[in-house]
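Posting for a labmate who doesn't have an account.
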Amino acid sequence: MKRWKLWVGLVSLFLSGMVAGALGTVVISEHMALEVLVGRGPIVEKVLKKLSRELSLTESQRERIAEIVCRTHKELTALRERNKPERDEIMGRSREAMKAELSAPQQKKLDEFFEQEKTRWAHREHGKAGGGGRKGLCD
């Protein structure tokens, strides 16, 4: 019986490690994708560096690929800006729907939560311009 418990424990440990690894991969992937969409300059440099290394780009190829990566980055940033009003409207409706389900004290806490998030995102928006104050690859 003790041997059976040992095997169950080992299999459980192995499976929990797999789940933790998979979740970590998803979180990191989403974070990297968000950086591209939010407009972080350094991510462009990281992408270009990785492409250069993985594909053994010549200097000429690197310059042309850099132009393509920068153009794509700018297009994604513009797309994000165009969608901002609709995104804000959806978030506003969501906030109001949530408030309808909450007590007055909970509504106040929800408003505070959204204000904190709004401030945090505004801070991120300022940090994206020029890669946090330094001259970026696409500037």
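Reply:
Got it, the structure tokens are right above this. The chain has four helices and no strands.
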